[in-house]
Structures are given as C-alpha cells and as structure tokens.
Amino acid sequence: MHFLRNLIILFLICIAIKINLCVPTIPSSLKTLPIDGHFDFKQVHHAAKDFGNRYSFLPSAVLHPKSASDIATTVKHIWEMGPGSHLTVAARGHGHSLQGQAQAHRGVVINMESLQGPKMKVHTGNFPHVDVSGSELWINILHETLKQGLAPKSWTDYLHLTVGGTLSNAGISGQAFRHGPQISNVRQLEVVTGKGEVVNCSEKQNSDLFYSVLGGLGQFGIITRARISLEPAPKMVKWIRVLYTDFATFAKDQEMLISGESTFDYTEGFVIINRTGLLNNWRSSFNSNDSAQASHFKSDGRTLFCLELAKYFNPEEMAIVNQEIMTSLSQLNHIPSTHFQSQVSYIEFLDRVHISEIKLQSKGLWEVPHPWLNLLIPRSNIHIFAQLVFGNILTNTSNGPILIYPVNKSKWDNRTSVVLPEEDVFYLVAFLSSAAPSSTGSDGLEHILSQNKRILELCEIDGLGVKQYLPHYSTNGEWRSHFGPQWEAFVHRKSTYDPLAILAPGQRIFQKAAPLSL
C-alpha cells in the first residue's frame, strides 16, 4: 500500500516536472525592472489572440508601458541577458495581425495601447503634420486633425489600426496611386531598437534605421512615435461605383485613372463572382442614390468587376465637381446602366468599414478565422492571373470581398524595407475571406486555405513575379525567396539593429540566437 502511494506521488512529481519544463520560468529580474508601467504575468491570454483567429501562442508576460522608456528598459534588459535567454519581444497594437505576427511564444508582449506620452499635436503652416504615439489609432488621428481642417494623405481601408502597426507593413488604400502608401508620408520616427536604444530617425537623421523600420515587419525596432504629413481635408465625398463584365476593359480603365492627373482622389476595384447584393459587402455600406436601379441588377452566374471611385470636395464646389465627374466617367467603358452614386461626409467615407464591423460584431460574425491572402502582382501578368483565378479556382465571392486595383511604384520609396514587384505599375489583389467556424464546406477554413494554396502555387508555377503583402512564411528559404536581392540588406539591417533577433518573433523570419545567415 505504501509502495503504491509512493509510486503515485513519484508519478505526480514527474508530471509536475514535465509541466514546469514546458512552461518557461519567468526571470525574477523582470519583476524588479525600474519602469513606470507594469508587467502582468497572469492575464496574458488576450495577447495570444489576433484578428486572424488562427494562431495562439501564450507569452510569459505582458508589459503595459507608460512610456517609450519602459519599452526600452525592458528590451535592453533582455538584450543584456544575452543569447542564452529564451525571451523575445513583440509589440501588439490593436491586435489586427492575421497569423500571430504580434505574438511572442514564451516571451514578452508589449501592450502598445497602454503607451502614454506627449499628447497628439497638430502643426499647421506650409508643411502641416501631426506628431502622434505609435500606439495611436488612425481614426483618432482623423478626428483630431479634422479640428484644424487637415487630414493625413494616405489611409488604409480600416482606420481602427495603430500607427506603428500599419507603418511596419506599408498601409495601402485607394489613395495610394496618388500619395503612395502610409510609409511614403512619414517624416520622422521615434524607435526602440532590439538593443533597447531609443532613437529619433528621419530622412536626414539616422536615415538607415528610418527606412529599415518603414515596412520592416517589426524586425528592426518598435515605433513609439511618428510624424505624419497632412493636407487640407475636404468635407464631402462623391462615392461612385460602376460595373464591368470584361476584365481587360476594367483593368484598362483603372490604369488610365491612375496614369495622370485623375479627377478622382480614390480608386479601388473588386470582383463579384456568382452572387447577389453586388454593391455591398462587409467592408462598406454603400447606399446608392438610385437604390431601385441597383436592386434590379443581378450578378448571379456571372463574374463582374466593380470600379469604386471617390471625389473629395467642399459644398461650395458642388457644381464644378459634378461636371468634372461627368466628364471623367464619360471616358470610361463600364456598363452604361450601372452608374451608382452616393454622397457622404469625408469621415463617413473613410470610416466605412467600421460601420460594417459593428454590424458583424452584433451577429457574432467578426471574431471568426480570417485566412486573408494579399498579393502584389505585376501589371504585365494581371490578365493571366485573372483568367486563371476568377471563375476557375474561385467560383464565388461569398466568403468575403476580393479587392483589385493598380498602384504606381513611383509613389513608393525604394529605400524602405517593403518588397514590391519589379514593374512600374502593379496590382494589389486582396482575398479578404472569413471562415465559418467548424464548417467543413466551401465556407470553412480548410477549404479557403486550400484555395489560397492553389493560388500561390499557380503564381509560382507560371512565374508571375508575385510578392505577398503582409507576408507569412514558415521557412528561411521562403523568406529568402520573398526578399530576393533585398535579402542581404535585410539581414545586414537586422544584425545592426536587432542582432539577437529579440523583436517580432511571430514573423518567423529569424530565430533568436541563431546565426544571421546571408
């Protein structure tokens, strides 16, 4: 009896040892760091979730910083612990990553939304700009700058994202053909490097770090402040959608609109395959002035292409703007009976996705898996891609919208870390799918992931020169292929600013303490 009891005790001890080996010990030194914020070692589960809802890696701790100094102190401490420490650091903004990029398995996640600092400040004058925290949401920047009649030049379609998050990728929307992405409209950054140094950088000061961080996927530093360029803000928007049945005509019109001094301030497009409700999807609530005409137009059984345009204006310019729009639309080759138009406020247009988000949240349809796939495709291959994918690999668009629109490479700064196709004009094609939880059908996660895989394989086999936006790869070889000739410079920058690979482990580009291989 005693033998059996002792055996059970020994068994339980072994289990306990095994569990402790799996759960990392928390360095006691973290608990005594001289910071104004605080660490949380218990409530960490929220830091293992993101918008993608596909990956979940628990950190050992979550830092709630009050200042950039708190972040620097933490990173510097981990840096000084050397390569023998398992700890890594990930900055988490609004949690909109898709594949665990802002998570740190057994590491430290920094809750950037806790970051405090100098109040947002708008500067007017000949070169207007706004100084903001890296944790600030773009929607808050919009509200604050509009008080001065100003606004940032370039946006993302969804504004409830942090400045640091979008600048670490690029930040693209329908204004990019004119102003470039958000990373082309930044004047200065404050960054905490992988050595725990707080560095101010710009085009003229610490310029290599400045361009490394922009589009750098969080690999070289954590953005704690940014200076964003502004322009005069309009009050109203003419919001227009027209339809096409022929992709070549659709693409030709899009490229014409971005090639010169376009009347329009925003140009995007999307694909509609075999579905009704063609003027609306979850990413915006477009209400046509002629709702009866719109409701009579059906897309069942067909592949259609929708060109979405916006013209910014002030009320006193109404007559002139209407004439400009009529003139510009007369040059397009859309289906004549499919000119749908709406007039909304500037802020209502820019925040259009959030309206739909609220509706989906109320139905429990927002926090589902989002197996998104974002591609940048050279103009010379976009027709081949469209022919092979739309209506073939994809037979409907019921799982979410597919965006497709061209941008000018000349509006992107080639000194940043972002990877682009080699041609002067390329298309963003974004498959913004939502998966039905537990479904094994065409709306299920596995089916959508299989489609994404087929699309990527097609691009590879046909040599289409495609690059992923918001890239995600699992192996070093895949990352090398993604960066191509930029890989050597990327590794050099990593060895300079984060040589122990402490930062952004969720990107899976480098492994901590492993040699940085060219």
Shape summary: globular
Please report the total strand number as a whole number: 18
Oligomer: single chain
Which runs of at least 5 residues are low in confidence (pLDDT < 50)? 1-23
- The first-level CATH class of the domain at 236-468 is given as Alpha Beta
**Which fold does the CATH topology of the domain at 236-468 refer to?**
Vanillyl-alcohol Oxidase, Chain A, domain 3
Describe what you observe in this structure.
Keywords: FAD, Flavoprotein, Glycoprotein, Oxidoreductase, Signal. InterPro entries: Cytok_DH_C_sf, Cytokinin_DH_FAD/cytokin-bd, FAD-bd_PCMH, FAD-bd_PCMH-like_sf, FAD-bd_PCMH_sub1, FAD-bd_PCMH_sub2, FAD-linked_Oxase-like_C, FAD-linked_Oxidoreductases_BP. Belongs to the oxygen-dependent FAD-linked oxidoreductase family. Its EC number is 1.5.99.12. The chain is an alpha+beta fold and 518 residues long. Helices cover 30% and strands 21% of the residues. Strands 14-11-13-12-16-17-15-18 form an eight-stranded antiparallel beta sheet. Strands 5, 6, 7, 8, 9 and 10 form a six-stranded antiparallel beta sheet that branches. The protein has a four-stranded mixed beta sheet with strand order 1-2-4-3, with no helix packed on it. The longest helix has 21 residues. The N terminus is likely disordered.
Produce a short descriptive summary:
The chain is α+β, with helices and mostly antiparallel strands and 518 residues long.
What key attributes describe this structure?
alpha+beta, Uridine Diphospho-n-acetylenolpyruvylglucosamine Reductase, domain 3, Vanillyl-alcohol Oxidase, Chain A, domain 3, 8-stranded antiparallel sheet, 30% helix, disordered N terminus, EC 1.5.99.12, Oxid_FAD_bind_N, cytokinin dehydrogenase, FAD-linked_Oxase-like_C
